[in-house]
Amino acid sequence: QVQLVESGGGFVQAGGSLSLSCAISGRALSISTMGWYRQAPGKQRELVASLPTGGSTNYVDSVKGRFYISRDNAKNTVWLQMNSLKPEDTGVYYCYARILTYSSAGYSDYWGQGTQVTVSS
User: Fold this and answer.
1) Concatenated DSSP letters for 3-54?
2) H/E element, 115
3) In angstroms, rounded to a whole number, what is the distance separating the alpha carbons of residues 117 and 121?
4) Reduced to 3 states, what is the DSSP secondary structure of residue 59?
5) Consecutive 10-residue runs of the chain (121 residues): their mean pLDDT?
């Protein structure tokens, strides 16, 4: 019932910007954290940015100063603003949330479907 629905992504030239959004579909009792992961070709999935509920933002070193994560708690939505994009940022970006639902006894991990971000030279 609970799903993470992503939007955004696409093709941009180096130095350009893109924004991603992710909304929780269904009823969430509580959200521990929301964030974004990415997976480049031939590499492991890595955490790009996260924003725990009531906490501070976290970024992988390679995107600090360029990417910004924000959340709208009332709408259970998370955004990722990506500026000064580099070819190395190319990959599939996945929304992530750790959620407690009314029907579960504890928190569970949820993932978006993934969206392609391609940055050309």
Assistant:
1) EEEEEE-EEEETT--EEEEEEEES--SEEEEEEEEEE-TTS--EEEEEEETT
2) strand 115-120
3) 13
4) strand
5) 94 98 93 97 96 96 98 89 98 97 91 97 93
Residues 6+ apart with CB under 8 A from 100: 28, 29, 30, 31, 32, 106, 107, 108
And the tokens for 1?
């019932």
| Percentages of the chain per state (helix, strand, coil), in multiples of 5 | 5, 60, 35
Q: How many CA atoms lie within 13 A of 75 on its CB side?
A: 10
